[in-house]
Amino acid sequence: MAVKPLLLFSPPILLSLLVIIFFKGHDFTIEEPTVESIQAAFAENKLTSLQLVDFFLKRIENLNPELRSVLEINPDARVQAEEADRDRRSSNSNGRRSLMHGVPVLLKDSIATKDKMNTTAGSYALVGSVNPYVAWGDTCGSSSGSAISVAANMVTVSLGSETHGSILRPADYNSIVGLKPTVGLTSRAGVIPISSRQDTIGPMARTVVDAVHLLDTIVGFDPRDSEATAEAAKFIPDGGYKQFLNKDGIRGKRLVVVKHPFLDSLNGSIVSTFGIHLDILRARGATIIDDLEIADIDIISDPGRSGELMLMLVEFKSSINEYLNELEISPVRSFADIIDFNQNNPDLEKLEEYGQQTFIESEMTNGVGEREWNAMEYLEKLSRDGFEKLMTDNKLDALVAPGISLAMTVLAIGGYPGITVPAGYQSNGMPFGICFGGLKGAEPKLI
After folding, report:
1. Which strands form 287-289's sheet, in the order they lie side by side?
2. Quick one: which H or E segment has residue 352?
3. Which tens digits make up the pLDDT trace of 373-408?
4. What is the rounded distance in angstroms from the CA atom of residue 297 to the CA atom of residue 405?
5. Helix 308-326 vs helix 407-414: angle between axes, to the nearest 10 degrees?
6. φ, ψ of residue 21 in degrees (nearest 5)
7. Which terminal Cβ of the chain has fewer Cβ within 10 Å, N or C?
8. pTM of the model
């Protein structure tokens, strides 16, 4: 899915690996810019938000026709950049600004914005998107626009959404950091939904540090998503998450590798490189336990057997209908309207290529009844007696697995957090990562 820029902080950045910008006699060098390097340039008066906006918009114009990851530009980007510059010059606001102030952000196009931009979710504009590492490679997942833009240095940080792998998998396939927060840690208000049990919003970045800076900005209670955010608010540490950015943080941690089924279907190059990374973790003080299994993992790994797929079809329809009814203006007002629109616009929506069978199956559901409640309880039991029991009984800090593994399913059905970081490249050049997952509220350990 393509993303759109939002200038809450500043507009999207497009940069080559090494960019030197000359502004008013200042020599400002950025090498894959980070949040902190941008803030340093702001503080030294070497850079303004408006200068960045103009530069980034030109880069979007140059790169996006090939990568097709940015769907829409905020028409007020330059105005908002000027506002950020004025605020930065004000001595009265120095103590209140976050590290994200004036920093460019891209948003997945399922996240609504209070401005002149659209929120279209599955727009046809992304068809033919390109993996920035391997042109034929899968960009993988509905947050692929957010991932591509970061990987190609089109932006420093972006936001994605995940129901089942849509942050972690694109991050993995595009060699960036993807952080899937505990469900409820970040608000889903204004986000096109799939499942309230599993939907979450999280950062995508080139570094863990940048992902954490963005996470600190977006966590917290939201009355518009009150039940989930109130429940997860207890996990947010005083002082935020950046305090846990410790280079020696792995020392003393107990990590579990579940070989079956997470390593079963992976090729030799991935498994071999994964083993090298495990040796590095051991050398830095981690304890690796690799002889444990998750109870009923074969059922958990199969969405049909676990009930996850059935529940998501039910929740998808009811969630979309609720979302559409809350919109002030919309050409469609129900799930059935979306299906009719697709049917009436088959070329625009690539209906012959992609179909809409999932939509049709979801529309045929009739809400949450006894069968669905039983399925929810069963999923909770699978998580409680499986992953949670494994972690608590063995006093484990995190699960570690190759990113392109079924570990994402474990994290999805339980609403657990995960973070994937770049790990290497397959023999064909496709990137892959390592995913660390934990129990609800385990973000400090994962960071």
Report:
1. 3-5, 105-108, 157-162, 200-205, 177-180, 418-425, 431-437, 398-402, 254-256, 287-289
2. helix 351-354
3. 999 999 999 999 999 999 999 999 999 999 878 899
4. 13
5. 50
6. -115, 130
7. C
8. 0.90
